[in-house]
Specification:
The complex is a heterodimer of chains A (115) and B (116). Chain A has one domain (3-114): Sandwich (Immunoglobulin-like). Chain A has no helices and twelve strands. Chain A has strands spanning 3-5, 10-14, 19-21, 24-26, 32-38, 44-50, 56-58, 64-68, 73-78, 87-94, 104-105, 109-114. The termini of chain A are far apart. The relative contact order of chain A is 0.32. Chain B is mainly beta. In chain B, strand 4 (32-38) and strand 5 (42-49) form a beta hairpin. Chain B starts with a strand and ends with a strand. In chain B, strands 2, 4, 5, 6, 9, 10 and 11 form a seven-stranded mixed beta sheet that branches. A four-stranded antiparallel beta sheet of chain B has the order 1-3-8-7, with no helix packed on it. Chain B has strands at 4-7, 10-13, 19-25, 32-38, 42-49, 56-57, 65-67, 75-78, 87-93, 106-107, 111-115. Classes of the chains: A mainly beta (115), B mainly beta (116).
Chain lengths: 115, 116
């Protein structure tokens, strides 16, 4: 079955430190891959998305993600986090065509940035 | 900037009552979605629509109906609300690329529903 797994429910880092949030997917072929962010009491907003090309994709606010077909992963990274990055981050995936408009989300990772 | 508006923002309902959650988008997107968000489950797809007059079942449709009377509006209906439907509900709209999966979704701010 198609699935997206975020193994870390909660991550805490200090302001200025680097960050990696992990995401693994299980799909036949290569799906479209997304990272969304949810700030407190708000809807989700797109950070970045990937389907093909350079495996490192740049997003908003200094975020980037790296696709690995061999590892079935799409990890999110940031070189230096700010307190305002505290939020819940969701990895998501969907397929091309057919019922591809069904976006499947991981369970989310709560990021807490310590001052 | 894409705009998706949900109403109400908060709702308290009684068990067995009927609840209607409304969603309006001004993006002229064909595709609209209803998700619920629960701790430990992330977002799960309830119903979605490819355009006015169409509704499709998502992954957890039981106990929910959907209605898409126009391009702009997509409602989620709980005919007989149960406490297990207490959750945060998100509406989203996304793109005009038919069934292609690369559409970015634009989310509303959510409706917090409590069924007592």
């Amino acid at each position: 079955a198609q699935s997206v797994t975020q193994p870390d429910a909660r991550v805490t880092v200090s302001e200025g430190a680097s960050l990696q949030l992990r995401c693994k997917y299980s799909y036949s072929g290569t799906p479209y891959l997304f990272w969304y962010v949810q700030y407190q009491r708000q809807g989700l907003q797109l950070l970045l998305k990937y389907y093909s090309g350079d495996p490192v994709v740049q997003g908003v606010n200094g975020f980037e993600a790296e696709f690995s077909k061999s590892d079935s992963s799409f990890h999110l990274r940031k070189a230096s986090v700010h307190w305002s990055d505290s939020a819940v981050y969701f990895c998501a995936a969907s397929k091309y065509g057919g019922s591809g408009n069904k976006l499947i989300f991981g369970t989310g990772t709560l990021l807490s940035v310590k001052p | 900037e894409a705009a998706v508006t949900q109403s109400p923002r908060n709702k308290v309902a009684v068990t067995g009552g009927k609840v209607t959650l409304s969603c309006n988008q001004t993006n002229n997107h064909n595709n609209m979605y209803w998700y619920r968000q629960d701790t430990g489950h992330g977002l799960r797809l309830i119903h979605y629509s490819y355009g006015a007059g169409s509704t499709e079942k998502g992954d957890i449709p039981d106990g929910y109906k959907a209605s898409r009377p126009s391009q702009e509006n997509f409602s989620l209906i709980l005919e007989l609300a149960t406490p297990s439907q207490t959750s945060v509900y998100f509406c989203a709209s996304g793109g005009n690329r038919g069934r292609f999966g690369q559409n970015t979704l634009y989310f509303g701010a959510g409706t917090r529903l409590s069924v007592l």
